[in-house]
Automatic annotation (TrEMBL):
PANTHER family with a match to the protein in the record: STAGE II SPORULATION PROTEIN E (PTHR43156:SF2), STAGE II SPORULATION PROTEIN E-RELATED (PTHR43156)
SUPFAM superfamilies linked: PP2C-like (SSF81606)
This protein's name: PP2C family protein-serine/threonine phosphatase
Record flagged with keyword Heme: no
Keyword Hydrolase: yes
GO molecular function: protein serine/threonine phosphatase activity
Enzyme class: hydrolase
Organism: Micromonospora mangrovi
Length: 395
């Protein structure tokens, strides 16, 4: 049995990318003498977990396990559900580098020993890694994630994302886009390289496909400069020049660029427009005041300055686009005036991965269930402190 994770890994490597769930099912059932497995994938809104092996699972069967699976997904911890017949369902998180993909269900006879649960968790980790790698080679898992058709603009935006969360010994980072199935220009991007975490949030101009195309150009210009070793200023300036010479000032992109030094706990920032940074510390939400500079692409050869601020262990930073803080449905005061701060304070006991969803749900509630009038981005960074040891499980 100790070789079981290796057996799963070998089976997954040998399987076609669209058959990972079946390969894992065969290997796990043989290794653990399990009666059944199921792979549940989280949808784009994180509103539910949906079966891959049996997509036609009757609603009653699906709903009977959904609450327990959701608890596993939210906590990122194994959850055991004992059945009336003496069997047990093990729910294991499917996550890799902090990116939450879904939940693996394994049904076994009797109550599993802790060592068996740990083996099952390692198997789930192998499957999560394979699912992440296979996502570019098959549409099967993406189809499981969507509960309705994506617009062309949204398809491009989701393909551009680096992921929806990432973890490190010093931080936990998560982001969410809304409206998930029709988002146009708003976006976020990040990259971890050694002791440096770069995060960008874009408040895209316009709507629909034209906004998505503009965002794609901006994101790739920023990445090109970053991957060439360019500083934060060089990233902003290259992207600004690229947009300007493409549109001659007729289009521009409000962007916030952040660079966190994970050793020192300092953040360097280039504020090129409207995304806001807010800090939750000790129950108090405070906006980080930065000098707002010109949006990317407004003028030729625009030059940018870097500003710096410090974070303390336990700080939570939110970065929000104007579709969040400036939302003012039906003549109400903007969401960011009071309601957003209340929503952020209510996330104090949640991890960043749950906090972004809470702020978005409160935003939807503020709109009284009406469709969002503008794209919205929420990115949440939990700073744990540079002295925190790495967590080998990536939690």
């Amino acid at each position: 049995m100790p070789e079981a994770p290796g057996q799963v890994s070998r089976a997954l490597r040998a399987a076609p990318p669209d058959q990972l769930a079946e390969a894992a099912d065969r290997t796990i059932r043989a290794a653990l003498d399990a009666s059944r497995t199921e792979v549940f994938i989280a949808d784009y809104r994180f509103s539910g977990l949906w079966p891959v092996l049996d997509p036609e699972l009757p609603d009653a069967g699906f709903l009977s396990c959904h609450g327990v699976a959701q608890r596993c997904f939210s906590s990122q911890q194994p959850v055991l559900d004992a059945g009336e017949s003496g069997g047990c369902r093990m729910y294991l998180p499917l996550s890799v580098w902090g990116e939450r993909l879904g939940v693996l269900l394994i049904e076994v006879a009797g109550q599993p020993e802790p060592a068996t649960v740990e083996l099952a968790r390692e198997m789930a980790g192998e499957l999560a890694l394979a699912l992440r790698a296979a996502d570019r080679e098959t549409d099967r898992y993406r189809r499981a994630r969507r509960r309705e058709r994506l617009s062309m603009a949204a398809e491009m935006q989701w393909d551009l994302l680096p992921g929806r969360s990432v973890t490190h010994g010093a931080f936990l980072l998560a982001g969410q886009l809304e409206p998930a199935y029709t988002v146009g220009g708003d976006h976020f991007d990040w990259s971890l390289d050694g002791d440096q975490l770069t995060v960008t949030v874009l408040n895209g101009a316009g709507s629909g496909l034209s906004a998505s195309l503009l965002t794609a150009v901006t994101v790739n210009a920023l990445r090109n400069a970053r991957r060439s070793g360019g500083s934060l200023v060089e990233q902003a300036e290259l992207a600004s020049d690229t947009i300007f010479y493409q549109h001659r000032g007729g289009r521009h992109v409000a962007t916030l660029l952040l660079e966190l030094d994970t050793r020192r706990g300092t953040v360097r920032a280039v504020d090129a427009g409207s995304p806001h940074v807010l800090r939750l510390r000790g129950g108090t939400v405070t906006r980080i005041d930065l000098e707002q500079q010109l949006p990317l692409g407004m003028f030729a050869e625009t030059r940018y300055d870097v500003q710096e601020f410090a974070v303390e262990p336990g700080d939570r930073l939110f970065v929000v686009s104007d579709g969040v803080y400036a939302a003012a449905p039906d003549g109400q005061e903007p969401y960011g005036e009071r309601a957003m701060a209340r929503a952020m304070r209510s996330t104090r006991l949640q991890p960043a991965t749950e906090a972004v969803g809470t702020v978005m749900r409160e935003l939807h509630a503020y709109h009284a269930a009406a469709d969002l009038r503008d794209d919205a981005v929420v990115v949440c960074l939990d700073w744990r402190g540079s002295g925190r040891p790495d967590d080998a499980r990536g939690r």
